[in-house]
Amino acid sequence: MSETTPTGRPAPVAPPVSGIAIADPAPLGLAGFAMTTFVLSFVNANIIKETGAVNVVLALALFYGGATQLLAGMWEFRRGNTFGATAFASFGAFWLSYWALVKLSPANAGDIHQAIGLYLLAWCIFTAYMTLAALKTNLAVLAVFVLLTLTFLFLAIGAFMNNPSPDAMTKLGGWFGIVTAAVAWYASSAAVVNATHGKTVLPTWPR
């Protein structure tokens, strides 16, 4: 029996959902994460000492690390990839929250080093349990999460210690961040190159 509307008329039949393929958003999300992490980590490692360098980081955090990763996460939801959706949407939100934290904090906010340390520690915890999930991906992605967990850990310790800048732990976190970005770029490039060539050109060592 066909369904009817409250007026007794036959209900309209919904058109079939088209099977439009959605491209893999992971390379885009990884690229946005890698570039933003790379630039910020140069500042954290005290390699770039310019006071205005944070403005470059904020621009990337808002558009590439933030908005682009968030979109990648939404596309991963559409593809049914729980891990990718959670990772990209969360780290996209991380970069957007970083932008808001730096850009919107009043100049007279006062000392918040313990709160910043807690903020970084919370992201360390999130990244650590996502690392457990990454055990089922490939070695390239797993390496990104292991390195990022350590990066957040060292940055959190540096924030809690609140030593005069440049803090040794913050600098160490910066160096780990640079390595993390390099590995994330490799994972991104491997996904793009392999998909384009239709074969494995850059290995990611599936598990």
In short:
One of its GO terms (cellular component) is plasma membrane. The protein has 207 residues and is mainly α. Helix content is 70%, strand content 0%.
SSE diagram, text form:
Layout: H1 26-44, H2 53-79, H3 82-104, H4 113-134, H5 139-161, H6 168-197
Helix pairs in contact: 1-2, 1-3, 1-6, 2-3, 4-5, 5-6
Question: How would you characterize this protein structure?
Answer:
It contains six helices and no strands. The protein has helices at 26-44, 53-79, 82-104, 113-134, 139-161, 168-197. The chain has one domain (26-187). The protein is mainly α and 207 residues long.
Multimeric state of these chains? single chain
Main sheet, how many strands, which sense, barrel?
Answer: none
Number of domain modules: 1
The DSSP helix count reads: 6
Low-confidence stretches: 1-8, 13-17
Secondary-structure class: mainly alpha
Intertermini distance: 50 Å
Beta-strand segment tally: 0
Q: Order of helices and strands, N to C? A: HHHHHH
Large-scale geometry: globular
Helical residue percent band: 55-70%
The radius of gyration computed from the alpha-carbon positions, rounded to a whole number of angstroms, is 21 Å
In percent, how much strand structure appears in the residues? under 5%
Rounded average pLDDT: 91
